[in-house]
């Protein structure tokens, strides 16, 4: 039956409807996008190079395509939005060394110039972030136990989108572990602070502030240390109890601090005299060792290193004896006893006596010779006994008497 309109017969209506349906199919086919997926939302770091892809794939391979770009809805493009490669038949654009001010919406439309048909439109937002910079970095602190302490870490607010702050501690694990929050340990993520209401020994560690956003992450770190936790502890003494060396040779003594909190300062002593560096004779090294070169008889004495902090001192000793052709053998074997000191002092007297014995003038020699021998004897007595507090500085005659009594014991 033929269709009727308002009760009247309308010839050929079926044919018109068929033509209309065919036209709709053609229009639908033309409206389908003929552009490759490319431009999309992206986040990049400031200073990077950005590729904005826009490439049509028309049904008609011979079609000539025009690409129209817009930035923030404006067809007048900024000079920094450039074609990537003019030899390629596409609409790709490049931005080199992007800055945060170039963030925004980009739109690309592909049109078939021959028939004016729009093949497709792509739109995407490019979010350009500045590298994360810290406005406030945590600093290492040394505090007493049971006192309040705080580490602060804040990101520069101009660094793109807000960065998230997290706190970690190095501990003894292969990788840092996130700080465990408790009623005593608190983290303010907005302010970027890590607060200890009171510090315990278990809190001593390296703490890491990590800031991250869509562009990446960066970290800074600081120590929390306790003051007054341990006096210096020295490693087992590697130096011999006694050390015999030849004149003009050299010897090296070691001193190693195993633990000290706060850190210890190390000095070397010979008797009561603190040693300092002397070119070509005495060297003090950064590893707390000491080297004596061109050994002379004056180098005979008791050497020890002393490590000291606010909690106390720890000493390590070693006795060093220099020998020469005129020095008799130590009858005690050099066991570091008081007899060693007596023997060393005796050698001083022996040498002085030998010098007087070979002096044709004897005790009646020149004043210069007598004075030199007396000064030499005094120096040896000082190095052997004054450091131990056994002799008083009353005068040379009293010292010789005291020395004689000491040797008779």
Description:
- This protein has 409 residues and is of the alpha+beta class.
- It has 4 helices and 29 strands.
- The strands form 9 sheets. A 5-stranded mixed beta sheet has the order 11-19-18-14-15, with no helix packed on it.
- Helix 2 (338-357) packs antiparallel against helix 3.
Provide the structure class.
alpha+beta
Share of helical residues: 10-25%
Please describe the biggest sheet, giving its number of strands, its sense, and whether it closes into a barrel: 5 strands, mixed
Mean pLDDT: 74
Count the DSSP helices.
4
Strand neighbour order, sheet with most strands: 11-19-18-14-15
SS elements, strand count: 29
What is the chains' assembly state? single chain
Task: Using the CA coordinates, give the radius of gyration.
Answer: 45 Å
Strand content: 35-45%
Shape: elongated
Low-confidence stretches: 1-31, 325-401
Which structural traits does this protein have?
409 residues; alpha+beta; 5-stranded mixed beta sheet; 17% helix; disordered N terminus
Compact overview of the structure:
With 409 residues, the protein is of the alpha+beta class. The protein has helices spanning 13-31, 338-357, 367-385, 396-408, and strands at residues 4-5, 8-9, 42-45, 50-52, 65-71, 82-83, 93-95, 104-112, 118-129, 134-136, 141-143, 149-152, 154-155, 164-169, 177-178, 185-188, 193-196, 205-213, 216-226, 230-234, 242-246, 251-253, 257-261, 265-270, 273-274, 282-284, 290-292, 301-309, 312-323. The protein has 4 helices and 29 strands.
């Amino acid at each position: 039956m033929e269709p009727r309109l308002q009760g009247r017969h309308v010839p050929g209506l079926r044919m018109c409807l068929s033509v209309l349906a065919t036209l709709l199919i053609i229009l639908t086919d033309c409206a389908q996008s003929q552009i490759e997926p490319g431009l999309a939302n992206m986040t990049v770091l400031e200073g990077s190079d950005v590729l904005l892809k826009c490439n049509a794939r028309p049904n008609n391979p011979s079609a000539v395509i025009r690409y129209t770009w817009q930035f923030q809805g404006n067809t007048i493009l900024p000079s920094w939005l450039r074609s990537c490669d003019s030899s390629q038949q596409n609409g790709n654009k490049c931005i080199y060394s992007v800055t945060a001010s170039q963030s925004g919406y980009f739109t690309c439309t592909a049109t078939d110039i021959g028939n004016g048909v729009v093949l497709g439109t792509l739109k995407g937002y490019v979010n350009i972030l500045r590298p994360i910079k810290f406005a406030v970095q945590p600093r290492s602190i040394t505090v007493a136990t049971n006192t309040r302490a705080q580490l602060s870490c804040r990101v520069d607010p101009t660094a793109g989108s807000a960065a998230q702050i997290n706190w970690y501690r190095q501990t003894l694990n292969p990788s840092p572990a996130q700080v465990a929050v408790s009623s005593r340990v608190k983290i303010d993520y907005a302010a970027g602070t890590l607060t200890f209401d009171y510090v315990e020994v278990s809190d001593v560690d390296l703490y890491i502030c990590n800031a991250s956003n869509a562009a990446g992450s960066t970290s800074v770190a600081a120590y929390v240390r306790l003051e007054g936790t341990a006096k210096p502890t020295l490693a087992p003494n590697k130096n011999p109890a006694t050390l015999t060396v030849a004149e003009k040779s050299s010897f090296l003594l070691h001193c190693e601090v195993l633990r000290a909190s706060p850190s210890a300062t190390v000095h070397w002593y010979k008797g009561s005299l603190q040693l300092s560096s002397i070119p070509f004779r005495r060297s003090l090294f950064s590893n707390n060792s000491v080297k004596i070169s061109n050994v002379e008889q004056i180098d005979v004495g008791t050497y020890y290193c002393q490590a000291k902090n606010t909690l106390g001192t720890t000493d390590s000793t070693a006795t060093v004896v220099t020998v020469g052709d005129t020095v008799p053998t130590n009858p005690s074997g050099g066991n570091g006893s008081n007899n060693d000191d007596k023997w060393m002092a005796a050698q001083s007297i022996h040498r002085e006596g030998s010098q007087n014995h070979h002096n044709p003038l004897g005790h009646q020699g020149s004043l210069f010779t007598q004075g030199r021998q007396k000064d030499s004897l005094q120096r040896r007595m000082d190095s052997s006994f004054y450091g131990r507090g056994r002799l008083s500085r009353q005068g040379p005659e009293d010292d010789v008497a005291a020395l004689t009594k000491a040797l008779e014991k």
